[in-house]
Write a structure and sequence with these properties.
The structure is a single chain. By secondary structure, the protein is mainly β. It has a single domain (2-156), classed as Porin (Beta Barrel), CATH 2.40.160.200. It has one helix and twelve strands, in the order ββββββββββββα. It has a twelve-stranded antiparallel barrel. It starts with a strand and ends with a helix.
């Protein structure tokens, strides 16, 4: 399953849609404007909250917790490395590896690729393609990508 995220250039808070291969809206993401730390909500097109991502404050490295229906699903943490970026996804046994500056990376659980993320170039605003393996929960994979994107954005500031 391919999903596409397109973030707006000028926005007071994070708000963007996620599309399928045919250009149909599947989900939308909305950030909280006034909050301590980054908080993102993932909704279906009916306005039902599917997941919630919250930044853990006062941690040495960026850390984001993913909740679904109020239950913690996983914690996405940037690993301490010197020459490359890596993230671990505690609770799922996943790792995130690749070229984060060019937004070309993959999520895997060791030997199996869970999803690939690639930046779509020559677009207005940041656009990404997320290719999720068919037997994987796309909402959880999408939340991991959103957490990684938030951590990269935080470190680039």
């Amino acid at each position: 399953m391919n999903l596409y995220m397109k973030q707006r250039i000028f926005s007071w808070r994070d708000r963007f849609s996620i599309y399928d291969e045919n250009g149909n809206d599947r989900y939308y993401v909305e950030g909280e404007l006034f909050s301590w730390g980054k908080k993102l909500h993932l909704y279906d097109m009916g306005g039902n909250e599917l997941a919630y991502i919250s930044q853990k404050l006062f941690s040495f490295l960026p850390k984001y917790t993913v909740y679904r229906q109020g239950i913690e699903v996983c914690v996405v943490t940037k690993e301490f490395t010197f020459f490359k970026h890596e993230f671990s996804v505690d609770g799922l046994g996943w790792g995130v590896f690749g070229d984060f500056f060019d937004h070309e990376y993959e999520i895997s659980n060791g030997s199996k690729v869970i999803a690939n993320v690639s930046k779509q170039w020559f677009t207005l605003g940041d656009s990404y393609r997320l290719c999720v393996t068919p037997d994987i929960d796309e909402i959880t994979a999408l939340c991991v990508v959103l957490a990684v994107d938030a951590a990269i954005e935080e470190q680039s500031r």
